[in-house]
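Side project, low priority. Logging it here so it doesn't get lost.
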Amino acid sequence: MRRKRLAAAVLAGLFLCTNALPLLPKAQESHISKLDGSFIQPWLYSGWDDARWRAEMEILKETGIDYLIMGDVANHNQDGTWTVYYESELDFLDGYFVYNAIDSLFYYCDMYDIKVYLGMGLDTAWNSDLTTSEGLAANALYMERCNQITTELFNRYKHQYPDTYYGFYFVTELYNTYYMETDYGTQLYTDGLAKMFTPVLETCNALDPTMPLLFSPYVNIFGYGYASINPDRFTEFWTQALTKIPFRDGDTLCPQDSCGGGGNDVEHLAEWTACYRDAVDRANAARGTELLLGTNAEQFTSPDAYRMTNPHGISYVGIKTVDDFAKRLEIARPYVDTLYCFAYSHHYSPNNVPEGFHRAFVEYLQTGKTETNPPTPPTTVRTELVTAENATRLQISLAGMTDDTQVGQINIYKNGLFYDFLVPGVNNNRTGFNCAQNVWIDWDFDISGESAVYEFEVEDVCGNRSEKSSYAVNTQNLNNGITLDSGTKNAEPAVEWELGVLDYLQYNITDSGVRITGCDKSVTDLVIPDTIGGKPVTVIDWYAFENHKNLRTVTIPETVTHISRFAFVHCTALETVNMPSSLYAIEQSAFLDCPKLQGIAFPDSLRVIEERAFSGCDSLTEAAIPADCQTVGDYAFFDCPSLPQITVGGTQTEFGTRAMGYTYQSGYQLQSGFVLDAGEGTGTAYAKENKIPLKSAILRGDVDQNGVVNVNDVVYLQQYLFGKKTLRSAAFAAADLCEDNAVNAFDAAVLKRMLLK
């Protein structure tokens, strides 16, 4: 019995001393059974006839969609012209009418009881400078025009479709700007946003105060120097913005999840959605309103930077598999009030893309499950020479792929490494695109003498992947004469490849040395050589391993002096990285958001640790700043919950804002139990300024912080374990007698033994 009680007390203590509890999700059903709404664009439906409209509406109703959001009513282009999708009488829109995209939308939505959020106009070159008089003036003109457009549309359509014309859509896609990084920048930019939104909301109220407004910003946690990638700054920014802007009850913040556009991913979706939730809740509490939070889940996938340019005229934009789309809806659901997507008719309608996407998603809505059977790879490969872009190229055609839902994508590997992929085309009123593509050109293949082994992997619409099949190409079979429908099977099982480290690495050789710029995304354990091409490896470059989801261990050679900005940012699987003895600087956000990273030992050579270098490293348990380190930047060790103390070796190190010992939970706060081990000098000054206890000044066991250790400390500790007292800073450190960064029943037992002795 005593053992059970002790175990219960230990568990209670472990729970109660958690540093930062996550935002608790809302109660929910067993699975998502419907979508609330979808965005739609007029270029898709401009040619639909009555039969197509009715078919699309039936498809939307199958998913439970009650709302459509259409923003393209009038777009101000960068060259000063307009593209107008309704017959306007406004002077500044005169001569720019293209076609009417609104009448048919209202007509069929009214027929099928689907409500419409209608756009307010969009300046495609809108001035994102909201901090100068010039920028504010430009946006004031923009908002004035939006209000004129909104008023004209309201007067024309509201009386005709009083229930269907449901709300206003603020079309501009605001983003997480770099202004979020500082308190001053946040204040300036949120003031500018308030000035931007206020006249719009005043117009909405004048027209019909019961019609809600919706807007859909996007988040980019992969910053590239222009966007904030820090959830705490992001939350503070949106809290201020949503508090200052006069939103009404029922208005909706519906941020894009950005998992399709490449600005976010599934691993971070809950954290960033929780940031929005926190900001909305805090703003509602401050203003006494009920602003709603939705999610705009993207159903497409964006390729890498090279393929984003549509090389050779090929669009690589793919479709999110049903399991991925459903997973992201499930992740967001606990935090949001509504579930929207971008965009069902564009990416999942069987009239526009392979029908398997819609069938599988409807099955998920009904059952909460997606099928898990893998497809089969190609069995037949035809090679032939074709003329493309004024040259002779190798073209490969595939057949024999099967699946019990439908093939959604084909991944292509060349000589052991991922190389390219084929995605479904978009129909858009044309024929021949409503299927997964199976014809591919290797634009880099040298037909004069190259040989290669290609491997083909099939992915179905539910995300299941086949085994790989292989086909070797050389000068003897550039035209193999295979007819795809002949039933010939000429593909072979996948080949086992032996690859060296240089096959995986990307790098630049310069006069002064080699800069590592990246590696293949399949790598899990990487050993970087000390020389390449006879030159020493000296730098891990900007963004070299950013968002590498598989990378687990990295060995850096002793020749490296700099780990550059964002080098390992968002490497969520990274566990160990050595710090070479030659290392001079760890730059901005180098290891930001590496939640599994541990065992870091800084060399004596280290002089600079820049801002947010180790922010969000959840598993980091110890850190000692070398004696000759000159700078530890702002937020360098921010939000490191497993780091109970930091040792400061020198006396002259400069420490930035919240460099150590801070976490975030609806505001910045000191991490419970954090202490500094520092002698006289700047470390002591930082501790005093931030009210962080010094290890040398803590009396072990003095839980009630009265300067003596006695039975009262045992009583205080027991009250803490039962939730009746709190422990902060020095008190937590004094109570953590086991020195395991937790306070529980074991510490109480140690304290009792101390007193008995």
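Brief comment: The longest strand covers residues 380-388.
Revisit when time allows.
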